[in-house]
């Protein structure tokens, strides 16, 4: 079980790990050793999430989910397959935590009478300061 929140966890039987060779610099080690780990999780067929959670995950992680409904998380940061596997699990958990967070709706508030009076007083003071800088009018 991979614990995402206090009330939600994903069973490891729903996850599929694929090890491949990494890309980029690294020479012979990168070309020969399968250290990159890709975690695949089918969002559509998962039994551990509710429909509302599924919709929220689909919406928030749409760039990481393919047409079939498989969420893909990969890591090739470390030189060992084991370290990359734990890194993908941690990244997977953090992605799901962020996707399942409910956005807090901001309550609109009014400007109080005291705040308005204070602002107007500051404007009057600033205006008088500027008017005192002007040269006197000649009549």
Kindly state the number of beta strands: 5
Low-pLDDT residue intervals, each spanning 5 or more residues: none
User: Between the first and last Cα atoms, what is the distance in angstroms?
Assistant: 89 Å
Order of the strands making up the biggest sheet = 3-4-5
Number of domains: 1
Average pLDDT, all residues: 85
Q: State the helicity in percent bands.
A: 40-55%
Spell the H/E element sequence: EEEHEHEHH
Task: Characterize the overall form.
Answer: elongated
Number of helices: 4
CATH fold name, please?
Double Stranded RNA Binding Domain
Kindly estimate the percentage of residues that lie in beta strands according to DSSP. 15-25%
What topology does this entry show?
Elements: E1 2-3, E2 9-10, E3 15-20, H1 28-32, E4 36-42, H2 51-60, E5 70-75, H3 81-100, H4 113-133
Antiparallel strand pairs: 1-2, 3-4, 4-5
Summarize the structure.
This protein has 139 residues and is of the alpha+beta class. The protein is built from 4 helices and 5 strands.
Question: What does the model show?
Answer:
This protein has 139 residues and is of the alpha+beta class. The protein has a single domain, classed as Double Stranded RNA Binding Domain (2-Layer Sandwich). Helices cover 40% and strands 17% of the residues. It contains 4 helices and 5 strands, in the order βββαβαβαα. The chain has helices at 28-32, 51-60, 81-100, 113-133; strands spanning 2-3, 9-10, 15-20, 36-42, 70-75. It has a 3-stranded antiparallel sheet with strand order 3-4-5, with helices on one face. Strands 1-2 form a two-stranded antiparallel sheet. The protein is elongated and about 95 Å long. The mean pLDDT is 85.
């Amino acid at each position: 079980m991979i614990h995402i929140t206090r009330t939600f966890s994903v069973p490891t039987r729903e996850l599929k790990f694929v090890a491949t060779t990494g890309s980029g610099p690294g020479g012979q080690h990168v070309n020969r050793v399968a250290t990159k780990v890709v975690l695949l999780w089918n969002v559509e067929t998962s039994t551990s999430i509710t429909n509302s959670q599924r919709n929220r995950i689909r919406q928030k992680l749409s760039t990481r989910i393919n047409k079939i409904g498989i969420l893909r998380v990969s890591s090739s940061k470390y030189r060992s397959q084991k370290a990359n596997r734990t890194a993908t699990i941690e990244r997977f958990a953090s992605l799901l935590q962020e996707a399942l967070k409910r956005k807090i709706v901001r309550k609109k508030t009014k400007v109080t009478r005291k705040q308005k009076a204070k602002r107007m007083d500051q404007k009057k003071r600033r205006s008088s300061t500027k008017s005192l800088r002007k040269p006197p009018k000649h009549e």
